[in-house]
Amino acid sequence: MQKLFYKRDLPHWHPPGASIFLTWRLYGSLPAIAVKRLIELRRLLEREIPRVSEAKYDFQTRQYKKLFAATDSILDRAESGPLWLKNPQIAAIVVDALLSRYANLYHLWSFVVMANHIHVLLRPKLMELMDELEPVVQDLPRITKRLKGATAREANRLLGRTGHSFWEEECFDHWVRTDNEFYRVVTYIENNPVAAGLVKRAEDWPWSSASERIRRGYSKIKSLT
Question: Topology of domain 19-125+134-216, per CATH?
Fold first, then answer.
C-alpha cells in the first residue's frame, strides 16, 4: 500500500526549544478506498502552483496540512478499521504513558486520545550528559519510539494480539513556530472530540488534556509533565 506522507516531503527539522504537534493512528485505521482518495488528493496538491512570493517550505507545509486535515477528518468519523482506543483500559495505557511513564522526556502541553488516533503537542526537555559541556535536547524520534513501543506492547497484550502491529509507522509531525499557532494547535487538539460529535465541551472528553487540566485545577494552559 502506498504511503500518504513521506519523510522527504518536508524537512523533519525540530529546532531546540520548539513545541511539536504529533499525530499517530492505529495500524489499518484507513480503509483502502480512503487511502486511494487521499493519494489522489496528494497528487492534485502536488500540481498546485505556489502563491506569489511564497517560500518553498511554506508552500509544502500548506499542502501537507491540507492532506493532514483530510486524513484526520476520515479518522474522526471512525467508520471502519480498528477502534481499540475506544476501550477505556487501552486509552488509559496511552494517557499513563504520556503523563507519567515518559514525563521526564518532554513538556506535554496538550493531547487527546480518539478511537483510532491520538494528537499530542509536546516540547522535548533538555537532557544532561556526562560527556557534554551543555545539556542537549531529547531526541524526538527516541521519544516517539518509546511512547509508541510501550503502548503498543501493553495494548496488544490486553487485546491478546501480541506480536501484531498496533500503530502505523507513518506519523504527522509539525513544529509550532509562533504563539498564535501554538494556541491554535491546542484548540484543534482539544476540540477534536467536539468536532467529531462525541461531546459538547472539550473538557467532557476524559482522555484529553482539557479534562486533565480540570482535574488538576489548572485555569490556564501549562505543562502537564
Answer: Alpha-Beta Plaits (3.30.70)
